[in-house]
Amino acid sequence: MSLAPRAVLVHRTTEYEELLARHGTHGQAAFFLSARGRSVEEVRERHERVHRALAEVAGAVPLSWRQTRVERADLDRFLFGPEDVVVVVGQDGLVANAAKYLSGQPVIGIDADPGRNAGVLVRHRAAQARRLLPYAAGAGAAVDELTMVEAVTDDAQRLLALNEIYVGPPGHQTARYTLGFDGPKVPPKPNPKPKPDPKPTKERKHGQEPEPQESEPQASSGVLVGTGTGATGWLRSLWEQRSSALTLPAPADARLAWFVREAWPSPTTGTSRVEGLLDAGQGLRLTVESDRLVAFGDGVESDALHLTWGQTVRLAAADARLRLVG
After folding, report:
1. Maximum alpha-carbon separation in the chain
2. Does position 193 have pLDDT exceeding 60, yes or no?
3. Is the pLDDT of residue 201 over 50?
4. What is the mean pLDDT of the chain?
5. Rounded Cα gap, residues 153 and 61, in angstroms
6. C-alpha to C-alpha distance for 254 and 248, rounded to whole angstroms
7. Is-contact 148 160, C-beta < 8 A?
């Protein structure tokens, strides 16, 4: 006998709750904010809107269903079941936080504070939950299957993310690694920058671009590999900053975009491969040549892979996808 569906309401602690936990009372929180030119009432109003949305969604769950709640900080310890319908009540980023722990469950994004969120992933209002919940549990529910990115190390550690994965130093040091590719079709070499002196030379002077190659030793502040969903965030800022000619992927596109941050040319490191696209089946490989690098997804540094000298990590599109109810 199959289990009845379970509605899992994902939420996060509000700023007002964090202030009360830190300062103890409403009055102390009000004093703290007023000293910084802010009003505690505005913060409390947003807190109340979020909890009204949570209450409305909870009340919309069919009586024959089970339901539970999970706070963002507890997601890594929560066991999702195959019969779950996941309802994220909050911001776009909260959907990304939950996505890495799912395995095909339908997700409904509820905007708890309309007007403050972009609404890319939290597309619905709390009042729509009564209709959306049974719809999402049905076999014919229309969902957008959003591409995710994964990092897999040579010792079988794995990390998933909806937006992007960053590989780099845990602080402000330089990341050293060798960057390479694998898959059915290795990305083509970029055109090297024209040299001011057309005469051939066997030596490369400091600061001069190296010849492009399949694998390239690099020194940089890290590498970012992301999806079409992530192309609205951190990836896009890098794309805009360097006036890139790449066409960023769409959220359901199987392709990934990648960028090397602040690559440094030296006698032993190059900068000929600093951005590109990965088609389905292609992967970006980094072999670590630093004492310690980290890989984390969607900005969550507390859930990171720790990489040491000689380890290899492969970044590519994941088989898993986020099934977001449209």
Report:
1. 80
2. no
3. no
4. 90
5. 41
6. 11
7. yes
